[in-house]
Amino acid sequence: MTFKSGRHFLQIPGPTNVPDRILRAMDRPTIDHRGPAFADMALEILAGIKGIFKTKQPVIIYPASGTGAWEAALVNTLSPGDRVLMFETGQFATLWQKVAGRLGLDAELVAGDWRSGVDAGAVRARLEDDVGHAIKAVCAVHNETSTGVTSDIAAIRKAMNKAGHPALLMVDTISSLASIDFRHDEWGVDVTVAGSQKGLMMPPGLSFNAVSEKALTATEKSTFAKSYWRWDDMLAANDKGFFPYTPATNLLYGLKESLAMLNEEGLPNVFARHDRLAEATRRAVAAWGLEVLCQNPAEYSSTLTAVLMPVGQDADAFRKLVLERFDMSLGNGLGKVAGKVFRIGHLGDFNDLMLAGTLFGIEKGLRLFGINSAQGGVDAAMDYLDGG
Ligand SMILES: *Cc1c(COP(=O)(O)O)cnc(C)c1O
Fold this sequence. Notes:
Largest sheet: 7 strands, mixed
Shape: globular
Bound molecules: pyridoxal-5'-phosphate
Radius of gyration: 21 Å
Strand content: 5-15%
């Protein structure tokens, strides 16, 4: 590798760029996690994190990646053999279904085209068919990170209510929380799954379960064998500001700083910033003559944009060129769209100039790659940002 001066551009849709404030907050001695200073900090974080999920209910924090929080949501509320309804919005929905299947759940995956979100009408129809209430949970990914497509969670909850079905609603917000509006309580979500390394601007290593009262009640009937993921041990310890096992103390320092930053900016401003930078990105993509993978403008993601390469062009070879020439990482195509799309992450600690640099690297990279239509995207984004 030749020497690279300046900062690396980490424009994958997570992990995201960690701001210096958070890095510095973590660069401190680890303290006694059974001592009073720790309890003061943990109680503050456990209270503060609720605002990010828009819930008054408990939020559980695991020292784990998001995949662990997927598993925790399932094993605390369900029992082996239970049926769960999932929707193939893309790779992450497919992986969550794989977790469910491995655990011994009867995980039904409604096929999708990887270009659209969950169809609330299909949720209602499927639940109305389930007269015996065999389906115990409906699981949806709020922002499908493999495609850049969001799903309307409030509409899914309404569909469940209209069907008069008692299933739990579980939502993966790993790439939307703290970037795109999400309301755990108001939207009647029972378990919200989240992670530290995307909108929360943290390194990987923490994940979350926000839990409704109905989800807590469901734990009483759950017969899954579980130990590390148990909510009851966690909630009992959290009450006093502690954890049942050693917490990721230094990541919690970072989380405290993340909450401070999000509150200083204000969540409505955080969401508006993401919306605006996402729209500027799409204007650039249109100017280049390329197509975004998401087909319905109402479902555009504000945290990432998946861009289709012209037919016959290898997206991974293009990403390699951009990495070597501009020291910028773009997201790869996953699963069914591997090699066909590249993904631009525009979430977390991100601003106009970072977007301009990102788009410059892509535009110039596309031309170096031989896609001569790639002109005027940076200008189109700037024109849009000028007006906003
Ligand atoms: C990143 C991501 C995951 C995976 O989380 P890990 O921390 O890698 O386990 C799951 N779901 C979505 C929607 C994601 O964006």
